[in-house]
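thoughts on these tokens:
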Amino acid sequence: MQKLLEIRWHGRGGQGAKTAATFLAEAVLGAGKYSQGFPEYGPERMGAPMKGFTRISDEPIKHHCGIYTPDVVVVLDPSLLDTVDVTEGLTENGIIIVNTGKCPADIRKKLGLKGRKVCTVDATKISLEEFGRPIPNTPMIGALIRLTGILDLDTIIEDIKRKFAKKFSEKIVEGNINSIKRGYREVEIE
């Protein structure tokens, strides 16, 4: 891993972008790295566009602001591609991961991207099949960890078990674990 990895999450209120940003930061912290996870607050309401941010480093993090030049952009809602410049500031070697049933080449064409790694995974479909709710954040975490190598799959699964078992039914915990595994396996990369 590079010294500092910056991830910007784009979603709509209620899709789990804030939860994913902070959960990933906590999981990485538990694995012995430094991290930050936080949302960008504003007039967000259920369904409104919002952003979350995660920073991960092997060394203490001294930045305490939004992320303007992300290494990775995660898009939880593909309708945002029509209304928000999700690629703004994405580094030349950056990765964009979009929740969609479309292939990466279609997304690359839609966004007019040259270079960069474009990836897609149908995270909404996965979450509906695995735990019956259209909350795509856990499959997207699975795709993200595969693409970046920031954590291994077993580490994130153990973290889900530890944190979710206190709050949710066994069915929901297993559904989230299966969602992460499927996101990890099913992400398409170009």
